[in-house]
Amino acid sequence: MKTIYTIALATSLLTISCGKKETTNNNNKLTVAVKVAKVTVNDNNPFITASGKVEATNSAELSTRMMGYVTNIHVKVGDKVNKGQLLLSINNSDLQAKKAQVEANIIKAQAGFSSAEKDYNRFKNLFEQNSASQKEFDDITVHYNVAKANLEAAKQMRNEINSQFAYTNIRAPFSGVVTNKFIDKGAMANPGMPLISVEGKGGFEVTALVPESDISQIKKDTKVDVTIKSINKTVTGKVSEVSTSAKNTGGQYLVKINLDKTDVKLLSGMFATVQFPVEKTQKSTDMVLIPSEALVHKGQLSGIYTVSQSNTAVLRWLRLGRTFGDQVEVLSGLSADESYIVSSEGKLYNGANITIK
Questions:
Q1: Which among 2, 39, 186, 291 is least buried, having the fewest CB atoms inside 10 angstroms?
Q2: pTM of the predicted model over 0.85
């Protein structure tokens, strides 16, 4: 009985051992289908990039020279307006009082001038008939000229008051759209304070800031490519202004680009990346570019999956540079002619078996 028990136990152990061996062999890694591409190198047209913001070519922030309470705002943000349309009204009761005083002074000056003019004409006739002395005629001439000057001064005062009314009734300087409102009804408007902004119909421009190391290579009238980040579209434009001073821009130089007409729906305030083509020099180096969508991000690290000789995915960390539209510059970690994985049909991980489509 003891011998039979020992043989049965050994048989049982053998059976368990064989089962474990078959599980290990069948636990093969899944193969992930991937699409690969080779590193592209920009060696023909070097360029400088700068970030900027889209703005309307015709834009204005309207303010006033008068201090007063806002009595009414006649438009809302987004409203279309015509040139000369009333946008905002400021209390002008003090101007109305001054205007009444000026009108009274004009009436007074007009009466004085009419009397002086009659005296002047009468003494002129008497002087021509030798019935008045030279001194009498000179005195009445002075009186007439003073009355005439007083009337003209009163009329010019009225013109000044009328011109000030333009600053209490803010009107659209051109046809366009109301883009912002900086004050509410009942608030105090101060001289020079922005009240309302209007953008006119027409083209757009991009204002970019360029560092001092690159500004000398940017020339006026240069054709450039502008990538609008939020909609991932690229439009063309031409450099219209290149600033020669960075005194008020934090050490960077202001460059303006007039955008060409396009069907792309642009809005003021959109962020843009401008590519300025420059001449290739002996110091220029080939630029390695890869699509941004192929990158893998983990915390502050960025990398990309490459293909090993044994057809497995290898995660390689990169040091990245500037962004050019939907592509990013690789400073280190990837060289020309290397292949990298653009997309996959399954989840990739370091060491995963892959098959190239």
A1: 2
A2: no
